[in-house]
Amino acid sequence: MKLFATKGGRKIPGNKHISLEREPFVLDPKKVEFVYFPLVAANNAPLEVLVKEGDKVKVGTKIAVQQQFSVPLFSSVSGSVAAVEKRLNLTTGRACDYLVIKNDFKMTPEKPLKKVKLDAKKEDIVAALKEAGLVGLGGAGFPTWVKYNNVKDIHTVLINAVECEPYLTTDFVMAKVNAEKIVSGALYLQKAADAAKVIIAIKEKKEEARDALKLAASDYPSVEIREVPDRYPMGWEATLVYEVFKKRYDRLPAEIGVIVNNSSTAMAVHDALVDGKVITERLITVSGNIVKNPSNIVVPVGVLAETVLKEFDLADQEFALLPGGPMTSNPAKDASFALPACLGALTLMEKIEYRPVACLRCGACTTHCPAGLQPVEILRAFDGRDYNRLEKLETLRCVDCGLCSYVCPSKIEVTDMMKKAKTILRVHQSRKK
Ligand code: SF4
Ligand code: SF4
Hints:
CATH class of the domain at 122-273: Alpha Beta
Bound molecules: iron/sulfur cluster
CATH superfamily of the domain at 122-273: NADH-ubiquinone oxidoreductase 51kDa subunit
Radius of gyration: 21 Å
Oligomer: single chain
Low-confidence stretches: 1-6
Mean pLDDT: 93
């Protein structure tokens, strides 16, 4: 089975300029009384907790470890461990135990990590990525070191700074302001993969970010800055890999000699290996068509969405709060969830209730699907619980990009149905096993 071509996709309004009109700013840590860290991993496995109620912590103290991949979690404030309480986990979609840290408002830093030089052995760089608990900051949250552990035959590290979802601008701001750090982190990843080349991909017409990256990379002939078309979902890994290499793969880009990381992750690699800093804060975009003063804001990991939203003026109307971009996120019930390190945006959109009508069989969902699927046929198979057909139609290759719902003239929530179809198919397959 081969995945993905650049067929499908389409240009959609970016609305990115609105969050760039205001300078990015830092959420005052004094406004954050508590931070919250989930005690289960994405696969629902419990974390090993390293602290107990009443323990003192600093900014960067290791508080728990995700055991499957040994990924540590660090406190984002100094203070004390206050409690364990139940909250909604955005990653799993269920309530789980959260470790609550009470801020003492001193922001006392933990000792920095051991710094690693670029000429270190690749095994030492991978070990440092593991020690720093680095995870993909483009949304997936997958442990970075795992991608680089014992890899062979990698020719290129592809840094994804495309940021194709509407409204989101953190990668653009980062590339403009921190281009040297992104290039530096990319060079470490190149070394970890033993790759000949780095390509940093950025969307066309982002001149300021492109020029900053080109300048930062000018001393490194192995680093190329590549502009790619402004077409959604160009930032999806498989779409971007095909655009750059004109090759497809089955499961992982490593099959064709490529490892992909987000540009914010590359910057976090620099921060950890060069400056000894773990991820305790991140830049996020707060935007959408009901935010009167959208902007980018630096927030501590584990802060509640409701605390962040107090910094913004919202139009007085009903809205949907989306943890992430408008194409791929499902609305949150309320703003009481905590922000994990891999979340890059809060998008607030006017609530519009569409009344779906019958499918016109216009084929728009099929034409635009970047994975080359036939969503309309999958919906029919889903309605009839025809598992063989769902398998034949390669339902599980859907990447939840949201484009089929976006283009559907009948206002059918095609993407939601795709998600449900994937769930029932997975359950069916595991029962069969
Ligand atoms: S886009 Fe909507 S109306 Fe058109 S075929 Fe797909 S589901 Fe049917
Ligand atoms: S959500 Fe899935 S089915 Fe719909 S367009 Fe995207 S990849 Fe295709």
